[in-house]
Amino acid sequence: MRFQPSISGRSTSARIGVARTLVRPLVCAVALALGATAPALRAADEGAVLDRLVQSGQQIEAAAKSDDRQDSWTAFLDESAPIARAHPDRVELWRLRAVAALEVNQPRLGRESARHLLAAAAPSAATRATLDKLEGRGWTLPLKIRTQLPAGAALPASWAGKSIKAGDTGIKLRWVKPGAFRMGTASNNPGGRIVHVTRGYWLGETEVTQAQWQHLMGDNPSNFQLDHRLAEQRGETIVGDDRPVEQVSWAQATEYCRRLNASEGAAGRLPPGYEYRLPTEAEWEYAARAGVDGDYRDGLPKIGWFDENSHDITHEVGEKRVNAWGFVDMAGNVAEWCYDWFQELDNEETTDWAVLDPDPEELSGATRVIRGGSWLAVAPRCQPSYRLSDDPGNTLSYVGFRLALAPKLSND
Questions:
Q1: Is 54 helix (H, G, I), strand (E, B) or coil?
Q2: Helix, strand, or coil here: 211?
Q3: Could you report the per-residue pLDDT of 149-206, keeping only the tens digit for each?
């Protein structure tokens, strides 16, 4: 496959779009291969697509330096990411991703590639040369970013498994026992990364509602407070009380948790070493999956409000089918803030995953993770592996949050 040489007359976004359309058919072919029923056929088809991706990267590498080549490298990085992360042993593909990261100045992706290249058993001369360039940029040295929950005292046995109702409004939280799961598994990443959850926690059965927010915070910022058609049918004026609160920022959601900790702590209703907070994205996905790898197996209309059935509004929490662990609305209604700073995921096994520090080399600025489907999301964006992020100060009409009672994130 060849990259078209004459797109430099277009705008930067247009050039990247053209370059991306030249790579994306390979990625689509991988998805089709993964959907095939015969494992041998899946492996053969996927291997062929990986080989073609490598050939394409090598063609870009051999081309003369130009704006077109920069755009092609950017498209290559975007479209090869899920396939490469599903195949950490494909050294040449990771070398090409490192070359691309060096050329378009993406330190985070360069460091990710360096980890895979350093693990290669018998690196080629080209791989060693690329590692030298990565080392010259300082990208072979790990950044000191905390990516694990801090150690803490064991939860007293009298608390484990106990039902929790938080605050004066009685927010219901369910116990999630320790275990392990494959984070990020999807049709284009069947292996995912194994994450060990060593400490149990509680998670809200539903998203925090408008009534629950207003009781503690004294206001209601939600866009969907009133629906006059439904109000007339029900003989009501306010119909938003039991809908999820939205248009709250990460910072505002965190303030809600702080106030709840103050009141529940004063009442003696906090287990030692635990606090109300936003869930980490590992805690969120562990509960959303409820023991199931891959995409959701129930039809989305049964478990979530999304663009095909929401009528462009939020709905009262708890109306859809609960998952095997008793949680509802994780595939739709509103997407949900998580505690973590956003970081690209690889498939390396880890324990108590939580990104507690921002990446200082994130060129677009540090953002916080958002998980789950929403009333305006298309079906693929409602799957448990789908990740978004946004500025922690932004408010969006499709983003709310779910409360966790979980291990403290600091030892203060």
A1: helix
A2: helix
A3: 999 888 988 898 988 999 999 999 999 999 999 999 887 778 889 999 999 999 999 9
What are the start-end ranges of the H helices in 201-299? 210-217, 228-234, 250-266, 281-289
pLDDT tens digit sequence for 51-74: 999 999 999 999 888 878 889 999
Domain range annotation of the chain: 12-136, 164-407
Let me know how many helices (H) and strands (E) the chain has, helices first.
Answer: 11, 12
Tokens found for residue 240: 């938003």
The secondary structure of 166-204 as a DSSP string is: ETTTTEEEEEE--EEEEET-BTTBSS-EEEEE-S-EEEE
CA distances from 318 to 41, 243, 305, 327 (A): 41, 9, 11, 9
Tokens 């946004």 label which residue? 390
What is the b/e burial string over 300-325, where b = at least 16 CB atoms within 10 angstroms of the residue's CB? beebbbbbeebeebbbbbeebebbeb
What letter represents residue 224's amino acid? F
Tokens found for residue 333: 């209604």
Is-contact 306 374, C-beta < 8 A? yes
Alpha-carbon gap, residue 252 to 216, rounded angstroms: 12
- DSSP H helical segments within 298-372, as ranges? 300-303
At 50, the amino acid letter reads L
Q: Which residue has the tokens 């605050």?
A: 167
Largest CA distance in the chain: 75
Stated as kind and residue range, the H or E segment containing 388 is strand 387-390
Rounded to whole angstroms, the Cα distance separating 183 from 180 reads 9
CATH code for the domain defined by 164-407: 3.90.1580.10
371 bridge partner residues? 336, 387
- CA within 13 Å, CB half, 395: 12
Both structure tokens of 194: 């194994």
Q: In this structure, is the dihedral angle defined by the CA atoms of residues 259, 264, 268 and 273, taken in order, positive or negative?
A: negative
d(Cα 343, Cα 349) in Å, to the nearest integer?
15
Q: How far is CA 370 from CA 18, 353, 391, 395, 400, in A?
A: 29, 16, 10, 12, 9
Which structure tokens are listed for 244? Answer: 């999820």
Residue 189, number of CB atoms within 10 A of its CB? 23
Let me know: does 338 contact 280? Beta carbons within 8 Å.
yes
Q: What is the pTM of this model?
A: 0.71
47: Cα separation from own chain's centroid: 27
SS3 assignment, position 274: strand
